[in-house]
Each structure stands twice: as structure tokens, then as C-alpha cells.
Fold this protein.
Amino acid sequence: DHVLFQLTAAVGLVNHHDAITGTSKQHVADDYVKILAKAVTSAEALIGKVYGTSLLPQDHTESDKYTKDVPVLPTVFTMCRLYNESVCTATQSLQAGETAVVAVYNPLPRARTQQVTLPLNTHARVSVFSVGETALVTSDLLANQNQVSAESAPYSLVFSAQNVPALGSAVFLVRLADKSTASQTDAPAVLKAEKVPVEA
Amino acid sequence: GPHLTVSSDQVSVTFNSATGLLESITRLDVTGAEGKPLTAQVSQDFAYYKSFGSPGIGNTATLKDTRDPHLKNIQPLRDADSVNNQPGGAYLMRSATPEEVPTRLAAEKKVDLSVVRGRGLSEVHQQFSDYASQVVRVRDGSPVVELEWTVGPVPINDGIGKEVISKFTSNLRTGEKGRSKCFTDSNGREFMERVFNYRPTWDLEVYEPIAGNYYPLTAAMYIQDTTHDQQLAVLTDRSQGGASLKSGEMELLIHRRLVVDDNRGVEEALNETTGGMSHYPDWIRSGDGITVTGKHYLLLSSVSDGLKEVRTLMDELYLPLVPLFSAEPSTVKHFEALATTAAAAAGSAENKVN
């Protein structure tokens, strides 16, 4: 409650007409950002904790035969606020041979299929595995053509999250092949931009 | 060749190789008139309006009287001088002269193009100027043309404040008796009809033919050509100003960098950070200027399906999939074991997670 109250209060504050429209001095505008950022940071931390537990199977009948010998873990997830600037430490820090768990939550009251883009700093062979469908997922690794800040990732991994259930999640394992197995995976090499010649 | 086309399974976009600009959009999953795929000629470009009262338009002597020297030789608008002197600023957008044609950011040069073609998406990178670029994306499974624009820092070394717009021009006929018509949302809910230089509830006297036709968007605006059963919508990722000044056109105000205060109380130009240009009084603050990036989503539809498609897309844009991450070894192991167990149970050995 405390975290959500803080966030509600911060959003309430920035509903002030000067905050919404920017009709304030620069330092006041910066202060609005600071208050909102503080509240969002604690809300993101809360979601990361709560979300992990919600991912574990609830209905113990069907899922038991899969999970009886799998240790139940307090999984903590993180969010990337500058995701729209292609900045995400969780995926950019992945090294060859490492795997990240990427979960996507669908807040709509209907199932949806949508592409997911992950910022990566390395263009090693990447494979995406859908835990729900127990199958590899087709993915593209592109040179990022919109690096708006120094921290923006040079590469974008794009894959499609199929049929993510309403108010539910889909979980993917994103694995960077290590040097030894790089040649074996069918994962795509990075797709580079081709300059379009000036019309003759 | 003369054109460059990128397609997804639902939409294809053609660029003109000579100008580097968008040229047409085709819905591969919708049949238009004469049984052909729904197609519209659509171009997009970045430009800016000079902001009223910018000292750079004349010499800095005009600083004392922020009246725009342009207006000296134009019959003053029918207002008292006090309004004529109203500069553009944080509270209001006012272009330098009523008849102003916005200045292209690409000036006269060709917009450079580069293409990346993937299996599930393709994207075209456009470089308009050293402070404006855009990535145009088409993705499998979606009829939307995604325009990720990046603008800034906007140069003000000419002393001119700039109102930067993204302008869409199409062959849709969207007006009656020369008055263009568009629809803009109200807080993401009801779409209101907007007619150029017209208000439904009083006889409008036009003082600002540009700014007076801008309306606040929270989510989207669209134009309709009912004769040809076509609708073109632009969805935004934040609140912006939007207008349709001519038939078939839509323009959105995406970035502003002004150099004078608008005398409405902020006492600071809508500029970024502090600093100061040596020959300007200290109340003009120059800064590094900010770079802004955002997305516009272009959706070509038939009129009959138009609003349903816009609403569905609004849901997906404003309640996007939320990605959460964990690289903790214990978490990875947990989900790998889950997947392996499920794969074994499903008997599909080749799916084993290696």
C-alpha cells in the first residue's frame, strides 16, 4: 500500500496543469521528474517481487507432474524503464553462454500476439526458447538504427510472443550461444543495414 | 530502382528513392475499391514553424519590442497591438507569420535511406538532417506502419524559435468546400470532428490560421475519404498537438525549442537547461537542447472498419506487453528445468532445451 500510495500521489501531483503542459521553469519541471522517478522506482521493485511469485504455477494438479522435482524459487524480476530508448541492463549485460529469463505480461482482457524487442550489446548467436510452448521461437537480430543515447544497445533482438493469455504471461529463455556452440545453432547472424543507393 | 518497398504479412510501404520520403501504403489484408488491395498515396516529412517574436528573424534590436518584424509590413491582424506582440512560448504556439509555410528539416537534400530486412520485421532508416532521423517499421502480424522519430537538439543559433512538426500528406479527399476535416480524440475517448477555421458553436473570427487549427491529442487523430472508403489514422505515444490544415493532410507538433518568454508568467523561454548566448540578454537561456524520440503509428483502413481498428490498436499501444527480466542463475535454472520437464513429458525430444 505504501508503495502504491507514493506512486498515486506522484501521479496526482504531475496532473497539475503546469506539469502536464510544461508551463513551468526548467528546475520545476526537473523536480516533477524526480518525484515521479522515485515513486516509479519503488513500484518497479515491488512488481519485480510480486510478479515472480505469480509466475509459479497456481493449479497444483496439472502442473505438479512437471514441477515436483523443480525447486520453487523466490524469483525476482526487474523492469527496464528506458526500454523505449533500447536501454536494458538485464539483457545488455548478457555474455556469450549466458541465459536470461524474459517474461511478458499481457494486461489486456484478451489473448494477444505481439513482437517483443530486446536490447543486446553483443551479436553472438542468440536463441529464444518459449517455456510455455517448449519450442524454439524464430527471432531476428538487427543492428539498432535508433541509438538515441550513449547507453542505447547496438543490437535489437526481435521475436514474436504468440497468444499471450489475457491478464497472463509468457516466459522465454534467451540464450547467447557460447563460442563453442555458436556454429551449431540455427540462430540468425545480425542483420545489418544496407544503404539504399541514390536513384541514378 | 525508383522505389523501395518493404512489406510484412499485412502491410507494405513504398519509399521514393529519389526523395527518400514515404510514398504509399498498401493494406495486403484489406480489399479496397475495384477489388484491389487498399492503397493510399501517403508521404511524411519533418518541418518547423518559426515561432512568433523570435529575435533572430530580424536583428537583435527587435528584442526590446518582441513584435515580429514580418508583421510590420503585413497589415496587422485585426487585433490591438498588444495581442500582435504576443510571442510564442511555453503557454502557446504562435507561428511567425499567419501565412507561414513550414521549413523542411531536410531542406532541399535527399533523405538518406538504409534498409534492414528481418524474418518477422523490416525497417527503413531515414536521415532527414543532422538532428532529425526516423525508423519506419513493418511487423508480421500487424497492419500498422510504425514511425520511430528522433529529433534534437534543435539548433537556435539563428535566433529563431522552432515548432517542429511531423506532417503527413495523402491523396485522401477529406474536406468540403475547401475546409479540411479531421477527428481528434478527447482523453482517449470520444473523437471530435474538427473543421478548418470553423467552430460549431460560434462564428469564428480567425486570428491564427495555423495555431488556431491545432487541437490537443491524447491518443490519435484520423482523416476520412468517404467517397473512396479510406481512413488514415495516426496514433501517438504521448499527448501532442495535431491539425489538418489542408485536404488529405495531418500534422503533429512533436518538439519545440523557443528563444523568448511569452510573458505569461514563466519568465523563461521554453528552452532546455541553462547557459546563455553571449549577445542575448540573460533572460534568453540557450541550453544544449534536448533530443526527443517517440513513435507514431500509421493505420490505413476502410472507413467502415476504421474506428474498430483504431480502438483495437489503442488498447494494444496503451496497454502494451510488459517485459520483465531475470538473469539470476537460480531463476534461469528453475525455468530451464520447467521447460525440460515439460518437453520430456510432451515426448518431443528435439525440443529439449540444450
Summary: Chain B touches chain A through 74 residues (CB under 8 Å).
